[in-house]
Amino acid sequence: MPDETPQPAQTATPEVVIEFKDVRKAFGPNVIYDPLNLTVRRGETLTVIGGSGKGKSVLLKMLIRLLQVDSGSITCFGEEVTTMPEPKLLGLRRRIAMLFQGAALFDSLTVAQNIKYPLVEHKWGNREQMDQRVEEVLEMVGMPGIQNLKPSELSGGMKKRVGLARAIAIQPDVILYDEPTTGLDPLNVRRINGLILRLQRRLNVTSVVVTHDMDSCFTITDRIAFLYERRMDWTGTKEEALATDFAPLREFVQGGRGTLESDGTEDG
Amino acid sequence: MSAAIKLLGHIGAVTRLSGRTFKIVFSRRFVDRSLLSAQMDQAGIGSWSIAVLTALFTGAVMAIQFADGLEPYGASLYTGKMVSLGIVRELGPTLTAVLVGGRVGAGFTAEIGSMNVTEQVDAISALGADPIEKLVAPRVLACIIMLPLLTLLADFVGCFGAMLVVMTDVGVTATFFIEQVLETLVVADLLHGLAKATFFGYFIAIVGCYVGLNTRGGTEGVGRSTTDTVVAISITVLVSNFLLTKLFLSF
């Protein structure tokens, strides 16, 4: 792994590939989005920030319809996701990969079998081609030669990197990252950030990252969307986020970047 | 009232899950023989010892009780008739289902529940596969195939246990006991028991998978779900046994 963390690629183009329009979602009395409006442009890295437990991951799951919206519209590559028939949805999931918070590797399978899983499901080449692809993606995430290990033999950071290898194996157009650096030590955080940036440059994918790790956010992102009070009305560049007058965002950014403030208690 | 509504909600959801499962089982999509054989091994082969032990001792105890009860009437020679009918029609399928169901159903819930709380079930969908095809269909089919086979084994071993007791306590020969059993049992008795076992296999797998897929709340939730499954399977087997018995005897 390089010592220097690469800077984000400036590849944003005006073309919108993902659009959430008036999306409403609630779990019983717990309202998550009321409503959600958001666009993601081709080739950019959009980072969604906001407090824990506010529903940032729900956004990613609604996008690939692991969760259904209550109302509203989600379009991806110009197609409506919320009413998409199952076979088409399979095609969409071929183009959008997701790195889950805990990596979600299948415990009963080896690393190689985990990475081959989407390749087999989408009938991607023959056995030799799949083996070669497994080797390639493990090389990309800096973990060659671990094909035969089980997930239980990997550390948290290694699991995330294997999860990422599995996500990119099928050569997606969009990668969704759910808290990619949560629970990792600083070295692994830097590794993952570097990986996201390198993949962005090398594969030119569109990325949506959900995180509350502000250092990670400012390292990898092109644009930020702030989830506040069940809406995502504020979006802008990281420079705009740093200079914002919007108090809740300013507090979130400052708090997340280590500026200590008095909590009202006094020492001694 | 709210408990009744909740129960109806669960029954509706299990029915929908069953519909989707059987659609996969009877379609060409269900081709992963390795998943099916792994589940048949886990659910069936892994449960034969519990089925054999239960049947052996249940058959033996029934024989002791019947031999004792029939003795005042001088009919203890016919213990084999009573015991074999009871085992093949009722105790073989029901006891096997309750005991194997507890073991297998709880295993399904624990495994799928753990996968659910660690987002592995979501990952299956996100990677372009169907969790019902990968997790539920092989388990349901494996149980539907293996429960009747385990029941057949339990019927045989139960009658064998009874025979040992009758030979020892009443003093009849093995040939006499077997003649009595063959004279009493008809093919329909055996088929009733095996048909019930098929339904029990379906109930065990679908309940175990359904509770697993709806597990929330981390490892604590998995523990709670596993307990719920054992209770739900026991009740489902006992209640459905009553209904199926009424149904089969009406034909």
Determine the fraction of residues in helical runs of chain B and give it as a percent range. over 70%
What amount of the residues of chain A lies in strands? 15-25%
Q: Shape of chain A, please?
A: globular
Compute the number of strand runs of chain A.
10
Give the strand tally of chain B.
0
Helical stretch tally of chain B: 9
Q: In sequence order, what are the helices and strands of chain B, one letter per element?
A: HHHHHHHHH
Unreliable sequence segments of chain A = 1-13, 262-268
Order of helices and strands of chain A: EEEHEEHEHHHEHEHEEHH
**Roughly how much helix do the residues of chain A carry, as a percent range?**
25-40%
Number of domains of chain B: 1
Mean pLDDT of chain B equals: 92
Could you give the distance between the termini of chain A?
45 Å
**CATH homologous superfamily placement of chain A:** P-loop containing nucleotide triphosphate hydrolases
Average pLDDT figure of chain A: 87
Shape of chain B: elongated
* Oligomer status: heterodimer
CATH class bucket of chain A: Alpha Beta
Cα-atom radius of gyration of chain B: 21 Å
